[in-house]
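Our platform keeps sequence and structure together, in a single record for each protein. This encoding replaces a full spatial description with a residue-level series of whole-number codes. We quote a single record here, exactly as it is kept in our systems:
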Amino acid sequence: MTVGRVPARILIVSDAWTPQVNGVVRTLTAVTAELRAMGHSVEVIGPDRFRTMPCPTYPEIGLALLPQRRLGGLIEAFRPDALHIATEGPLGLAARAWARRRGLPFTTAYHTRFPEYVAARLGLMGRNGITRAMISRFLKWFHAPSQGVMVATESMREELALRGFVRLRPWPRGVDLSLFHPDLRQEAPDFTELPRPLFAYIGRVAVEKNISAFLDLELPGTKLVVGGGPQLRALECAYPGVRFVGPRSGRDLARAFASADVLVFPSLTDTFGLVVIEALASGVPVAAFPVTGPRDILRGVDGLAGVTDPDLRMACLRALTLERAACRSHAEAFTWRASAEAFLDNLAPIHAASVTRQRAQTDAVAKA
């Protein structure tokens, strides 16, 4: 059951939203823009509309405080045709409760390997009674009523299915092919002086990204880190030989991508990895572990546009030999319009569900 292609009022509730900078925010921003261009009315409710408290160990992220009453009013005022709950945080829980109380359908998304993420962020696994099994049970409970649990990759769908998740729906990601382009390699003067080859990590500088697995490698040339986050200062102190340039955005970010000889993606917790296709669109081969995300993106072109290998150093050195044109060619298969269309097809219409429920109630009264 889908909303269809007629203009619809689509509401997205997410604990990850601007001014945060991460893959969830970038995905929702891009898909929202595409949906609006297709004629739909889209509203995103994020923590920016509520009083917040800093997320433990990650103060840059604000968590909404007691959002239930205000969130319910915002949802009802928007009168959505479809409700999508993007995250499992305070806002996601409040939106889920609101919909469940009213018997209304909604969809959800599985963006992060949450048990592994929490283990990396908080170091709680195996201590204080917090285990992967407990977190997995919470996630299964959270997504169980969803009419469609959207996942970015086939391997993530297979993994969640084995864990008992149901109604899993594909939701591919895209890339801005006009922004991320190989030609920008000629426009990156701040990187031309660095010894080559240039191995780059681009993304949030946070412990769950496993960046030290890259920085510990013995590689020729220069290691570059582009991005900000809670681990930035610690890594700068621990790795004085690495070039840290802080966060970039827009065309400056695209220039950083294009300037690299290899993008190194050491994460083990991502379910996709937008930076992988942004690098490919920039003509930059990728080196990564053979995990969900890189393995799916490079399916069919592993060894041509990138290399996945349990030996990350070997993957980096092999990726140096790949043709940049093959990287760009593979990236052209990923578009945000296709991502938005898949998202739209996965949605569950609220009004149709309401009519069905009202008819059932009417029939029950008549029979009585």
Observations:
- DSSP finds 15 helices and 14 strands in the chain.
- The two ends are 31 Å apart (CA to CA).
